[in-house]
Amino acid sequence: MDDLLPSFITLGGFALPAAFLLYVTRPLSPATIAYLLVMAGLCLLGGLLFAAGTITVLSLKAPPLANSLLVLAGAMISLVIRQLWHLRLKTH
């Protein structure tokens, strides 16, 4: 089970943004759900890019658990940026 922990944490980089977006968005239609899942996938992609950039710039030789935590942190940062952008568009 310990070998799978980094994979589950990395999967959380998709699951947590998806759950949050589905929770805060109303009303939900099939098209809205598909859109939100694509946004959660893009948050995961942002997390992967954040982790890759951090590992490359800092030349980290970290264990897989630390790398997956970087992916999760990057996904959460991407989600915050998306929410701030969405809020900005609604106010203008």
TrEMBL record:
It comes from the Bacteria. The chain crosses the membrane at residues 6-24, 36-59, 65-85. Keywords: Membrane, Transmembrane, Transmembrane helix. This is Uncharacterized protein.
